[in-house]
Amino acid sequence: MHRANRDVVQLLRREFIVQASIEEAWRHLANVEDWTSWAHHIRAVQLQPKGALTQATVGRFHLTNGVRSTFRVTEYRPPLGWTWQGSFLWLLVDYEHRFEAVAADRTRMVWSVACEGFGASILGRLFALIYNRNLDKAIPRLQDELANK
């Protein structure tokens, strides 16, 4: 995921519970093109190949603020998690999505973001501040969506 010879800055880590089995949570989140239903900061998602996330997925988010963010899957461990990597300006950003079974019908989601590159400690923290605000709104919507599925 990260190159050992570079400084990596941990930007955020969010843990929350969803009312769904680990398999249901995985299936729901692996349909990245549907994230716009709960992540309203995302206007559109383009994936190659289309459909559910795979180990070969590359994609692009079109955000509501006009920013476009590209990524590629770097780790793929269904139903336990995946990591994808993208860029923000000159920073390399790793997004990890982990799934942990809490009960037959409950899953802990652990999302973390780290970055590396020149100015990561300053620019990365600004990125994390904005991203955290988006997650503050998106996570409850995702929880509601999974609870009412």
Explain what the structure shows.
It contains two helices and seven strands; from the N terminus they run E-H-E-E-E-E-E-E-H. It is of the alpha+beta class. It has one domain: 2-Layer Sandwich (Alpha-D-Glucose-1,6-Bisphosphate, Chain A, domain 4). The N and C termini lie far apart (33 Å).
Outline the secondary-structure elements.
Elements lengths: L7 E11 L3 H9 L11 E7 L9 E6 L4 E10 L3 E8 L2 E13 L2 E11 L3 H28 L2
Antiparallel strand pairs: 1-7, 2-3, 3-4, 4-5, 5-6, 6-7
Low-confidence stretches: 1-5
Strand order of the largest sheet: 1-7-6-5-4-3-2
Category from helices, strands and their pairing: alpha+beta
Q: Report the average pLDDT across residues.
A: 93
CATH topology heading: Alpha-D-Glucose-1,6-Bisphosphate, Chain A, domain 4
Q: Mind telling me the C-alpha Rg?
A: 15 Å
Largest sheet composition: 7 strands, antiparallel
Annotated CATH homologous superfamily: START domain
The total count of strands amounts to: 7
Number of helices: 2
State the shape: globular
Cα distance spanning the termini: 33 Å
- The CATH architecture comes to 2-Layer Sandwich
CATH class: Alpha Beta
Quick structural overview:
The chain has two helices and seven strands, in the order E-H-E-E-E-E-E-E-H. With 149 residues, it is an alpha+beta fold.
Summarize this structure as a short list of keywords or feature phrases.
149 residues, alpha+beta, Alpha-D-Glucose-1,6-Bisphosphate, Chain A, domain 4, 7-stranded antiparallel sheet, 7 strands, 25% helix
